[in-house]
Amino acid sequence: MKSELSPLVDLGNDMESSTSVSSDVRNVFGLMLKILFPFFLLIAYFETCFVVPPGTIGIVITLGHVQAFSNGVHTKTPFLSELVYLTAKTQKLEEENEIPTKEGLNVRLDTAVLFRLDSSKAADIYKQVGEDYINLILAPEASSAIRGLTSESEAKALYSNGRNIMQETLLKQLKEKLKPRGIIVEDVLLKDIKLPAQLSKAIEMKAQAEQDAARMEFVLQKERQEAERKAIEAQGIADFQKIVSQGISPELLQWKGIEATEKFSDSPNSKIIIMGNDSGGLPVLLSADTQK
Predict the structure, then answer these.
(1) Is residue 38 domain-resident?
(2) For the chain, what is the total number of helices (H) and then of strands (E)?
(3) Cβ neighbourhood burial of 201 (10 Å; 0-12, 13-18, 19+)
(4) What does the mean pLDDT of the chain come to?
(5) What is the model's pLDDT at position 2?
(6) Strands (E), 138-249
(7) Residues 189 and 268 in one domain
(8) Which residue, 131, 118, 130, 119, is CA-closest to 175?
(9) 219 pLDDT exceeds 70?
(10) Is 47 among the domain residues?
(11) Are residues 221 and 189 in the same domain?
């Protein structure tokens, strides 16, 4: 009888042992779940929430769908969304261009384009072009506009008053071409120009000749003014002499001579008076005092 019950007892012991092991496994699993669950929640939180800093555009790509976000705190689908940041601040594109002029001369023109990304069209730019929109859109358009404009202008326009006109024209052209694509051009600057050696020498010689001509014109102008001054002075003297000659008559001179003779005769000094030979002659006074 005891031998018949022994297998049943062993089976019960095995079942009890198996139940104990299963309970231990469940306890360990529960403990691990309690430890890992907050960790997974934290990861999910960081995968769900993101912050877009000021002056930045956040591009979220979720299963092929692209959406742009401005600065602030936003959410996305965890583990399925990709986040890309694009700057919305003003940027500068500098280039060195070897360009032909209307005369067929090749000159080097250094330019700078100030631009920024249009936040409202950032998603379209990312879908159509990607992150490297500067090299794919802006740089080729800027180079093409600069070459097209300088090929219609003479070299002297690059270093004269025509420079400002070229800058304004380039700015207008780039704004019209790039604004529909989502790139706002703020300004175009023509920084530096390097002309061929022969042209630079010719320009220097021309500038020197213009300075010499200006200096000579100044000298001639000064001489003309001096001649006018002398002519005015001579005319004044001539007018004075004419007035004086017209106002002096022989009778006036004779009368003045008589007045002077009377004044001399009234002085206490001894003198000799010699009368003239005719009625028009004035008396001559000689002092009779002897010098000691």
Answers:
(1) no
(2) 7, 10
(3) exposed
(4) 76
(5) 44
(6) 183-194
(7) no
(8) 118
(9) yes
(10) no
(11) no
Phi, psi of 194 (to 5 degrees): -125, 115
Does 7 reside within a domain? no
285: left (phi over 0), alpha (psi -120 to 50) or beta: beta
203, HSE (Cβ side, Cα atoms, 13 Å): 13
Q: Express each pLDDT in 51-98 by its tens digit.
A: 899 999 999 998 889 999 999 888 888 878 889 999 999 999 998 888
CATH number of the domain bearing residue 99: 3.30.479.30
Burial class (CB in 10 A: 0-12, 13-18, 19+), 265: exposed
Strands annotated E in the chain:
49-52, 56-62, 65-69, 72-75, 81-87, 91-100, 106-117, 183-194, 271-274, 284-287
Instruction: State how far Cα 125 lies from the chain centre.
Output: 29
Contact yes or no for 96/146 (Cβ under 8 A): no
Please tell me whether residues 115 and 166 are part of one structural domain: yes
Q: How many CB atoms lie within 10 A of CB 259?
A: 10
**pLDDT at position 8, please?**
45
Token output for 191: 């920084």
For residue 165 the two structure tokens come to 């006109």
Domain that holds residue 218: 196-247
Residue 290: DSSP 8-state:
P
Q: What is the DSSP string of 41-98?
A: HHHHHHHHEEEE-TTEEEEEEETTEEEEE-SEEEE--TTTEEEEEEE-S-EEEEEEEE
Residue 41 placed within a domain: no
> Which helix H or strand E contains 34, and what residues bound it?
helix 2-48
| Rounded alpha-carbon distances, angstroms, from residue 176 to 120, 172, 182, 183 | 17, 6, 11, 10
Structural domains counted in the chain: 3
- The whole-angstrom separation of Cα 134 and Cα 115 is 10
